[in-house]
Amino acid sequence: MSDPDHKVLEMYGAWGTKKMYGKESLGVIRSSVLIDPNGIISKVWPKAKSSGHAQEVLEMVRQLS
Predict the structure, then answer these.
(1) β-strands 23-28, 32-35: how paired?
(2) pTM value surpassing 0.70
């Protein structure tokens, strides 16, 4: 694991309580963050769904280029 203490995950809001089948647990919250070459956050998808998400991110990258 590259972030065993969850410091970076917590900074991005990607670690916390999540629910699955009515049960709460701590873990990685699926999300995406687009960071520009200057280190500025350009877009956040807090509840990224796998279906169509890659295309949505690619379109946003193209808009920012």
Answers:
(1) unpaired
(2) no
Of 13, 11, 47, 7, the closest CA to residue 30 belongs to: 47
Q: Which residues of the chain have pLDDT under 50?
A: none
Q: Do residues 32 and 57 touch, judged by C-beta distance below 8 A?
A: yes
The helix (H) or strand (E) run that includes residue 56 is: helix 53-64
Indicate the domain borders of the chain: 1-30, 32-65
Number of helices (H), then strands (E), in the chain? 2, 4
Amino acid at 9: L
Give, as one character, the DSSP assignment of residue 52.
Answer: T
Sequence-separated (6 or more) residues with CB below 8 Å from residue 47: 29, 30, 31
